[in-house]
């Protein structure tokens, strides 16, 4: 009995159920196989890639540097441009969506204004609207305004994150005590200052979570930029690699060098987000429980 | 000062009614000030496009005679269009198989990771979550390589046993090929949400159950799972919405699986093809809107059947 409680109480005596750990081990292998394949095969040159041999192990030729050089110089360094575009879309879309969601969530949670219940119900209803159903009309609206094939066509629609508003609403409602806000007001702080200096620090875990979720959503977005952009110099890396994949598949033999670029390109493109997730782990995990719990 | 006390959340219906009339104009203004910027984006990129899609879907563009108002003709056409119907049938079938599978795996993993607290378990948790950080497009590209005859290890592995490797890009097995990609991509994310919910459960409940003689299995099925039911329903809804809009993975694997995945494989792909390849925006909008309607019906039906368990909407 006692050792069960002690784990929770914080003495951290590890619970090991060996069969379950073995099961976990197999699952970890399954989840890592694609990464392993990409890591191994991006080290190979074209003969190594196409010459048969073990597809899950290295050849004698390990040439990451040569392949990286090829990746970043191919077609005038278009790949680096795609990565930078993705970064721009993820940061602009992520930060913008988060700022709007934090403000709106706080507003819904802490002020009782006209039509609040109705507006919040509409926002919740919007969670069920398929995002892709919006792409076609948004495309036509933007083409009337001359905005298609610009960065705005990708950034502006990414500012919309109703789930972020819902998450922030729940979090602000529970983590920011009204008494504290009232105390700040008594001390003469304005509403904006109360929000920035009292409420915002308390909402930090949820803010980081919403920021990560929106940035990931922008970084991963494929349908929207695919529809909006025609100039490949504006493509994010997802659309760019999709383009290469299409070209390489279309001319099966001629696309030999493109295949190795796609493999290494996939590997390089996933590194930024993996690093972001690992380094921000402490911050976003607390926020995730919010959406699930209630 | 009296105003300040009014701002506190009222606890009872009675109090609420008493206060409602007196809420200061300033509170209305501040509330709208905070919600306003999001509201503008919401109107511009959600309400307006939805309305516009509905509007577009009511017209038809003909080579001769130009654009004309046809009311629901496009919808009648969609719901008798074998391309659209087969796409809808596919995503419905796919949802019925893939969502329970993903959630079962995620739930099992979350329960294991909640119980096992070794360093390896913590490492596993991160590794299993890793695919979420991968764009679905890249995930599909990676699995496409693993499935392919030329690059993939399947030929070698099955060759060891003298068997022919299954071709997950063939029309017989593409369903399972996609099922695997989707499970790999999302199970870890759902696991993290469920795990976070489990971590929020008050551990004294387990203690009480143990006192009453409950075993580990009983604690998991009778206490843990019911307590995280709201989280389960939340991810079920999200995966349902996502799966019915299936687009990225089949679109990417289409290049590798030539002939297996057509342009009308899922309703979203069909809408994309109609709008952007054939410039038939009216019919494309009608398909998107019809799909949106199907998503709405499915989600509300689901929420209706689970209404006792949920508390989040």
Number of helices of chain A: 16
Instruction: Kindly give the count of domains of chain A.
Output: 2
For the largest interface, the chains and their residue counts are: A-B, 113 and 115 residues
Specify the CATH homologous superfamily of chain B: MetI-like
Give the SSE order of chain A as H and E letters. HHHHHHHHHHHHHHHH
Mean pLDDT of chain A: 81
Corresponding CATH superfamily of the largest domain in chain A: MetI-like
Kindly report the oligomeric state of this protein.
heterodimer
Shape of chain A: globular
Overall morphology of chain B: globular
Question: Main sheet of chain A?
Answer: none
Main beta-sheet strand count, sense and barrel state of chain B? 2 strands, antiparallel
Q: How large is the radius of gyration of chain B?
A: 25 Å
Spans of chain A of at least 5 consecutive residues whose pLDDT stays below 50 are: 1-12
Total DSSP E strands of chain B: 2
Text of the CATH class of the largest domain in chain A: Mainly Alpha
Number of strands of chain A: 0
CATH class of chain B: Mainly Alpha
Q: What fraction, in percent, of the residue positions of chain A are helical? A: over 70%
Helix content range of chain B: over 70%
Characterise this structure.
The complex is a heterodimer of chains A (294) and B (313). Chain A has 16 helices and no strands. The radius of gyration of chain A is 24 Å and the shape is globular. With 294 residues, chain A is mostly helical. Mean pLDDT of chain A is 81; it is low at 1-12. Chain A has helices at 2-11, 18-41, 46-50, 64-73, 78-110, 116-126, 135-144, 151-158, 162-175, 178-186, 191-202, 204-220, 223-228, 237-250, 256-279, 281-293. Chain A starts with a helix and ends with a helix. Chain A has two domains: 1-40, no CATH class; 73-293, MetI-like fold (Orthogonal Bundle). Chain B has a single domain, classed as Orthogonal Bundle (MetI-like fold). Chain B contains 15 helices and two strands. Chain B is 72% helix and 3% strand. Chain B has helices spanning 2-7, 13-20, 25-57, 73-78, 82-115, 119-129, 136-147, 154-160, 174-199, 204-211, 216-227, 229-244, 248-256, 267-277, 281-305, and strands at residues 59-62, 66-69. The relative contact order of chain B is 0.11. In chain B, helix 3 (25-57) crosses helix 15, helix 6 crosses helix 9 (174-199) and helix 7 packs across helix 9. Chains A and B meet through helix 1, helix 2, helix 5, helix 6 and helix 7 of A and helix 1, helix 3, helix 5, helix 6 and helix 7 of B.
